[in-house]
Predict the 3D structure of the following.
Amino acid sequence: MQQVRKLRLTPQFDNVHGAKRAESVFPTMSRTPTTDKPAAVRHSHRAGLRTVALVEALKGVLALMVAYVLIVLIRRDVDFEDAAEHVLFFFHIGLKHRLSQQFLHAADKMSDTSIAMIIGIAIAYASLRFLEGYGLWRQRVWAEWLAIVSGCIYLPFEIYKLIRHPNELHWVILIVNILVVLYIAWVRWDEIKAARSQRSALPDAAD
């Protein structure tokens, strides 16, 4: 009976010693990393990207709401310049203010705008914002590049508006868009560095 028990225990001890020998010979193969650096970097940027995504989605919603109001006013043959004056009077804003004059001038131009143009511009702009917001919320790389490219495309037009008609609103819009572009570019660069460091660590682990 003792010999049988000895025979049954021997393979188990051999397996244990064999596993220890294999671990001592191949230490890098037996130990796997517990953290994924790119995944950790993506997780650290999740809150910021989702905040930007909500802002972009809000832009799309506001574009559709403004388009709807404009279409209703056009169908009712409302005088946009007169309506703009009432809005300024309601908020106790003087008509001689530079921002007020720009607002009245823009309202006067809206009378000549067609409904089809308003619908087309609103749908195109809102679709872009919703798509970008969805991608940033899901932390997609293509959405980050889309946010950078679209933001850089808008910046020259915003700078031109600021040069032609400098006011507080144009300054706020320009600064916010610059900060968004810089933040997304920093996130993209941080993720690229994390991916490169992980790839460079793989040959060392294999050695």
